[in-house]
Amino acid sequence: MKRQPYCVSFRLSTKLKGDPLSEVLFSVFRVILKSEIPPRPLLFLSGASIKMEHGSLDDTKATFSLADEDHTLANSVRFALNQDPRVTFCGYSIPHPSDARVNIRVQTTGDPAKEVLKDAFQDLMGMCQHVRTTFDKAVVDFKTSEPVKAMNINP
Amino acid sequence: MPRVSARDLPDLPKGQLPPHLELQRTRVLCAADAPTHTENIQYAGAYAMMGVDNSFRLDAFSKRFRVEVIKLTEDDMEFDMIGIDPAIANAFRRILIADVPTMAIEKVLIANNTSVVQDEVLAHRLGLIPIKVDPRLFEYMPENDTPNERNTIVFKLHVKCKKGDPRLTVKTDQLKWLPNGSELLIASENTASNPASKPKTYTSFTCSQDSLPEFSNNPITLKHNDIIISKLGPGQEIELEAHAVKGIGKTHAKWSPVSTAWYRMLPEVVLLEEVENEKAEELVKKCPVNVFDIEDVAKGKKRATVAQPRACTLCRECIRGEDWEKRVAVRRVKDHFIFTIESSGALPPDVLFTEAVKILEDKCERVFAELS
After folding, report:
1. Domain-by-domain residue ranges, chain B?
2. Which of A42, B118, B182, B343 could disulfide-link to B201, CB 3.0 to 4.6 Å?
3. Greatest CA span in chain B, whole angstroms?
4. What is the ipTM of this complex?
5. Does A123 touch chain B (CB under 8 A)?
């Protein structure tokens, strides 16, 4: 039997016509149903190992394709992007497990996606630097305090 | 978690979440049936309605982030990383396992092998032997290049069990480092015609590795001298040369610098009400890892305390049975990671971690440079 999910949702909403909450929900449904996914030819800029999707009309949405990267970098940058207030959507995918490539999707509230992505990488670099200095300091502190502990002054 | 109507919530000071939301944000609640609130809320505007900014600020991160070293030995390390997101902690773990380079035997030139271990099995076994050398002193070997002193370490293994001798166990201490490179000659046609020319070997070292300042006082050795490579019966012999090159764990696990690296979230055990007398003793008995202890309060009363929350393995034995969930709460702190690194011997674990962080930085740098 063929399923008709859209019919179900329409019937539901016509029944509830007049109810203010349902009206709102209905309009949301309409928006979702009407918004088609625009055709997006995945023509990649050739040359560099990072490729940006070509063909979208504005630069606030873009998919970046990074060669020779995996979850390590993609998930970290997804985290950094998610915490950026300018980002409305971000996510990453690995199109095929035997291709060393990740696609990172960034959609913003208005800023160019490329700049937002660059800022995310900058944030990550800043984080890494701080982690490194903090860690090195903690190790030095531990190494200097360790002989004192080993002496066992207060048994 | 009791449900509270929004109308009954007290007016909040700005920049602070109500306690129940703060708990959900920062803790994984491990109930008897399943853990809840396991996800991390990352979206910057997640708490915008409450006037709480959830976006990333480097200064706020710097203020919160802490590292506490718990244990540091030659090969093992345990430390607490506090105030970091699992995405980043996991990136460090993944890099430690798969992206930090080491040296490992990649090519084995077998001159003679009459042992019961087949050539390819022997080569594989040799590949997994950890070499105690700083990989940062070496370069990656380009493809189709002749090995030189900057990218290859050569070891020799020549053992023979004489006829009439008892069986011989070949261990890693028999592997000898050849600082001058390969000693095996390449057979070529013109050696007879031109005897004056230097015979060609499988490597082209311009100088001896032990003349280099970094190895002169610090010869290249293997991490363990007692790994069994093979056993030889009377009359059997192994003669080979092993060439070690630089590589990463992503290519093959033999290049992984860690036995393993892992993290766990800090367990938090909270007594929601006073657990006294028989109940206290029952609670202490329930826990297989002795998280709880009993303290004596006045008038012969006994009270349970949480003595070692770090030991908790989250087996949830303590909240099994009727009513125990009301008394004890088992949680995990979402941004507190107990990170453990077990080095396989090439570098000390603290150096490995610093290298891992550098590698993540380099990855970001690379992409950043290409984007600009």
Report:
1. 22-38+56-100+257-372, 102-256
2. B182
3. 104
4. 0.87
5. yes
